[in-house]
Amino acid sequence: MRLRLALPKGSLQASTLRLFQNAGYNVSVSDRSYYPVFDDPEIEAMLIRAQEVSRYVEQRVLDAGITGSDWHADSGADLVTVAELVYSKQSYSPCRWVLAVPNDAPFQKPEDLAGKRVATELVNVTRSFFEKRAVSVEVQFSWGATEVKPPDLADAIVEITETGSSLRANRLREIATVLEVRNLFIANRDAWEDPWKRNKLENLALLLSGALSAADKVGLKMNVRRDRMDAVLKALTALRRPTVSPLSDPGWVALETIIDERTVRDIIPELKRAGAEGIVEYPLNKLVY
């Protein structure tokens, strides 16, 4: 038996494949192939556009897949969310769909766009956004290059952004967040109700979530004299309580913990001054709570 997966082709492809690799799977794909090869013979995968993942999973062409919560919401597909995975093409932070207008436009809030034209690829979500506010706008589907459309082809746009740099480069400013995007690991109900596939899906979700939890974190271990342990613990920011292990010398203990990578350069000198010795920093692939 095999689990058939849909993985997003395009901007999320590289980060998704990297996530699977951090989760423990060796995945290879050639430049011209749409079929990634896993070192797990029980997984069969296909690369398709994120906009289409929900449709093909709902139609049972594929068992499960990864897509953005934006495209899933826009599709209206009835699927099981196995896990929420927060990452984007450049970072481990969520992207946002924002309502943006030209810098010199008079619009300051969504209500100011009543009767105006809004261009976007995310048509259904955008319509729902304005309907909830009782604001009547003309939502136009955009095939791409959406940032160039205001002010001549549209009065405003709803576009996805990670850093905001593309909007600024096109002299646009945000006036509202329409949707914050998280990637979803989704499955159809037939796959979810199959015991073998459900077990496989839950195992995958655990490992993928563990890989994301380990992102930007490192492990630290060190040796400490018992009479200096309180000072070292005071300097140490632990994910949980640090692990304390006795050494062969009864006057010493080993401490081990996990911290944010960005704090390492500040905390290691403090630990050394507090009395820690033999400090070792090591990378993490997975962190399962």
Give your account of this protein's structure.
The structure is a single chain. The chain is α/β, with parallel strands linked by helices and 289 residues long. The chain folds into three domains: 3-91 and 183-214, Periplasmic binding protein-like II (D-Maltodextrin-Binding Protein, domain 2); 95-180, Periplasmic binding protein-like II (D-Maltodextrin-Binding Protein, domain 2), CATH 3.40.190.10; 217-283, Alpha-Beta Plaits (2-Layer Sandwich), CATH 3.30.70.120. Helix content is 29%, strand content 33%. The strands form four sheets. A five-stranded mixed sheet has the order 4-1-5-12-6, sandwiched between helices. It has a five-stranded mixed sheet with strand order 9-8-10-7-11. β14 and β15 (252-260) form a beta hairpin. α8 packs antiparallel against α9. The longest helix is centred in the C-terminal third of the chain and has 20 residues, at 195-214. The two termini are 30 Å apart. The relative contact order is 0.15. The model has no long low-confidence stretch (mean pLDDT 92).
Q: Would you summarize the structure shown here?
A:
This protein has helices at residues 13-22, 50-58, 69-75, 123-132, 165-169, 189-193, 195-214, 229-235, 264-274; strands at residues 3-9, 27-28, 37-38, 43-49, 64-68, 80-85, 95-102, 117-120, 138-141, 156-161, 172-181, 183-187, 217-225, 243-246, 252-260, 276-283. The chain is of the alpha/beta class.
